[in-house]
Amino acid sequence: MVVNIAAYHFAVIDDPPQLAQRLREQAERLQLRGTALVAPEGINLFLAGDGEAIESLLADLRADPRFDTLAAKYSCSRAQPFARLKVKLKREIIAFRRERCSPLRGRAPSVTPDTLARWLDQGHDDAGKRVVLLDTRNREEVGYGSFDNALTLPIDNFTELPEALAPHREALREATVVSFCTGGIRCEKAALWLREDGMDNLLQLDGGILGYFERVGGRHYDGGCFVFDERVALDPQLRPLRDAAA
């Protein structure tokens, strides 16, 4: 069985090339495949391999004070979903190209999967306000599944989100808006930027769709969650849509 992880962490990285080289060497030694992105603002990992090897890499990262709270989301597959290991240097670990949205300065308020599921069960938040789910992913990802009645936007790139959302802002003013994405990283930036831009009724779903699947399963969700590897998508039980060895 192959263990797959998705993990990101925002932290000040003074020497990204040095960290990238360290990650490459360790991942190669542990025979892991996938993608590791390194930028001055942090790291973003999609890796797969032997379970003990995965835990060894995570333990090494968490021994570094910059990453001591690094959280990972797990799933399993019979086949290795990555053809090779790629370690890349980037300007941002998730490109948004907006000012005033650096998670290095803090994060937007969030809601846990359990609380969101309870709000959706009862039809409103704890203050009695209607809840609107905002999908920050692109149209290809949305095509594989999303939350029931979520607001989805016709975007192909994350950087297009603010403009695509603009026509809906007034209609959302009296609602509690919960933004979500695959694992949470996009909302770390989008939620900060939108709140700074006056949308103070916006929260982010902690852990994204994958975190919701881990804690809640598929309640109020229709379909699967697109992932960026050969598994294509995961169902609410975190099973791959495609698994070549199955």
Task: Give structural notes.
Helices cover 26% and strands 25% of the residues. It has 246 residues and is an alpha/beta fold. A hairpin with a 6-residue loop joins strand 12 and strand 13.
What's this model, at a glance?
Helices cover about 25% and strands about 25% of the residues.
Topology, pairings included?
Layout: E1 2-10, H1 16-29, E2 33-39, E3 42-49, H2 51-62, E4 71-77, E5 85-89, E6 110-111, H3 113-122, E7 131-135, H4 139-142, E8 145-147, H5 161-165, E9 176-180, H6 185-196, E10 202-205, H7 208-215, E11 221-223, E12 225-226, E13 233-234
Parallel strand pairs: 2-5, 6-10, 7-9, 9-10
Antiparallel strand pairs: 1-3, 1-4, 2-3, 8-11, 12-13
How much of the residues is beta strand, in percent? 25-35%
**Strand line-up across the major sheet:** 4-1-3-2-5
From the alpha carbons, calculate the radius of gyration and give it in angstroms: 18 Å
Largest sheet: 5 strands, mixed
Order of helices and strands: EHEEHEEEHEHEHEHEHEEE
Count every beta strand, where a strand is a DSSP E run of 2 or more residues.
13
Q: Residue share in helices?
A: 25-40%
Shape label: globular
Low-confidence stretches: none
Mean pLDDT: 97
Q: Kindly name the structural category.
A: alpha/beta
Helix count?
7
How far apart are the termini? 10 Å
